[in-house]
Amino acid sequence: MLTAVLLTPGQFPSVLGDDYPAACAVLGLRPVAGGYGLVLGQDGLGARWTVVTLDTALVAVAVATWDCGMEYDLSPGERSIVASLPGWPLAVAVAGPGLPAPHDPSERDGGGPPLTPPDTSVWGPAQRRLGADEIALQWKSWRSQVDDEKDFVKATRDDTGAEGVEGVRGPGASAVRRVLDEARAYGEHPPPPGRVRSSFAEGGARALRADGPGWSIVARTDDIAFVLTDDEPGEVRPVGRGPELPGLLAALDALAVRTDG
Fold first, then answer.
1. Distance between CA atoms of residues 219 and 207, nearest Å
2. At the top level of its lineage, which domain of life is listed (predicted)?
3. 23 lies in the same domain as 72
4. Which of 164, 181, 182, 161 minimizes the C-alpha distance to 173?
5. Is residue 83 situated within a structural domain?
6. Following DSSP, what letter does each residue of 70-94 receive, concatenated?
7. Beta-bridge mates of residue 6
8. What is the pTM assigned to this prediction?
9. Which residue among 58, 86, 110 closes a domain?
10. pLDDT digits (tens, 9 = 90+) for 81-92
11. pLDDT below 70 — which residues of the chain?
């Protein structure tokens, strides 16, 4: 065993998909409500394997312990294991000591094509979601780079009530408008579990993450939002609060899967 991650409606490797069912589909798993734990390791010959367990509590304790720099022997019980899948769905930079270099088992040994990590070498859905992950993780750093006087894209309404965007022109304006419209539509048409997630943030606020077809939003309910789209490689659009954003963020928080209980 080299590492482990949770695959639940509230916490899953976003590189795998925009929501929990999509991430499960990559592994050929049914999106059960309680979720799974994924244990990535090697067998005695060095082959990569992903063990899928229903014991999410055990995996959560192991991950939290490792994050604190302490050791933890993660050994899921046989009754909790639902699958042993060939390959790894995520990139792992370490290898087991005393074992051959990590390699995929043959299809004969593994029973099918091995799992492989999504391609993140070029801009696309996987890279866009990883970018959103980084902004969420380094919120203070990204927020400090925004000049409140000139960098914001502001969601507005004109006198007719039509949606608009101030502060950016051309493709950027249409991209941000589409994202805000689609995110707002989640209030009437709830998305799949995990498409919108909410977690604790400083000052009593909530940290929000929303994803959709071709876009990601990272936001704080008491502050601004950042928008990334597949159509604009590497671009991060900061959206100012204005009159509309607070209501949108509140609505998203109300329907989000909460990741901190």
1. 6
2. Bacteria
3. yes
4. 164
5. yes
6. --------GGGEEEEEEB-SS----
7. 37
8. 0.89
9. 110
10. 999 999 999 999
11. 110, 149-170, 172, 261
